[in-house]
Amino acid sequence: MIQPVSRPVRTARPGAATVLVAMSGGVDSSVTAALVHEAGYQPIGATIKTFCYAETGGPSNTCCGLEGIADARSVASRLGFPHFVADLAETFATDVIENFVSEYSAGRTPIPCVRCNSFTKFRDLVQRADTLGCEYVATGHYARIETDAAGARLCLAEDSIKDQTYFLWGVPRPVLDRLLLPLGELRKEQVRAVARRLDLVTAEKPESFEICFVPDNDYAGVLRRYLSEDHPALSAGPFLLEDGTEVGEHDGYARFTVGQRKRVPGGFAEAMYVVRIAPERRAVILGPAESLAVSALEAEAANWLAERPRTGERLGVRIRHGAPIVDCTVLSVQADRFGLELKAPQRAVTPGQSAVLYRGVIVVGGGTIV
Questions:
Q1: In this structure, how many other beta carbons lie within 10 angstroms of the beta carbon of residue 341?
Q2: 175 secondary structure, DSSP code
């Protein structure tokens, strides 16, 4: 196993004078900027303008809304460094929202934050850093960058509850060499303590958990704006048992995901769950809890952040954000695809979600579950 050596942000290195800091307007990114500043770097704050405060509307008080811009600018002003807004609404719509709609239409459950990190946010940050002459970029993610003889590695955060490596597996590998993650060794209460010490406007700001372009978690409403009224994903179809028996009618398979129990028919001897979506039949397939247990999975669109695993290698895998890392064995691996056998069956392995691989604390890479 690779033994990483910490690459902290506490002390600026010669030649690393300027850092582009992604600032959403929340407490985490505010403290990231503050720690970069205290370490002796010269930060430049950048707030990415995406969808949620464009003409289509959305909440202004989230960390990526209009209030977020104002709070980020306030923090930058208080700490004495420049701040600008990067308008990525068009790119975000193509990379993230269109993919979101396409995946739900295909009966899968996407993770927009993974898509944004992989295709939009980090690539743009690096490009803008190059334009501005910044050697590094910094974000407020709870993860760590450590360095060994092979280069930079993305690693688990010290705070296992806040760890966000699940959302970062798709970041382009070269980005790691230029990435600073000051919060990786901190806990949330420590982050707020820094914000209070510096009297930052974001010190008591609540966390935002919703998807930025899905106000009130009404993702079906987003789909309705992009799909026709009679699109199969939003049209009536059958609830089927695993043996094909029809037991009711739903109002659109895009409103359901694997593992869901809410809004499925009742009256059975045991609780029933969504075990599969069959878009070709507009069907939502139901089964008992034991039908959700999966002992193997396959993932596509793989991205490797460390040495690609070998067939037969034993690793850890996380299949949902907040889920524990479980033991697995690599059954097959290609440049853009891998298959896994899980040591213990896992519940509700969901197409469209991520399977993230770990070699100890190091993120090996990940892919989208198919």
A1: 13
A2: G
* Cβ-based neighbour number of residue 158 at 10 Å: 17
The tokens for 222 are: 């987003």
Nearest 10 degrees: Cα torsion 260, 344, 315, 9:
50
> Pick the catalytic residue: 52, 116, 134, 328?
116
DSSP assignment of 197-260 = HTT-TTTTPPP--S-TTSGGG-HHHHHHHHS-TT-GGGS-EEEEETTS-EEEEES-GGG--TT-
In sequence order, what are the beta bridge partners of 238?
249
Q: Closest by alpha carbon to 294, among 346, 332, 258, 242?
A: 346
Active site residue 116: yes
In 10 A of CB 232, how many CB atoms? 18
How do residues 101-151 score in pLDDT, each as one tens digit?
A: 999 999 999 999 999 999 999 999 999 999 999 999 999 999 999 998 889
Q: What is the pLDDT of residues 18-58, one digit of tens each?
A: 999 999 999 999 999 999 999 999 999 999 988 655 444 44
Phi, psi torsion values for 312, nearest 5 degrees:
95, -10
Closest CA to 133 of 30, 32, 44: 44
> Of the residues 113, 134, 212, 328, which is catalytic?
212
What does 10-42 look like in DSSP terms, one character per residue?
A: SSPPTT--EEEEE--SSHHHHHHHHHHHHTT-E
Active-site residue flag, 63:
no
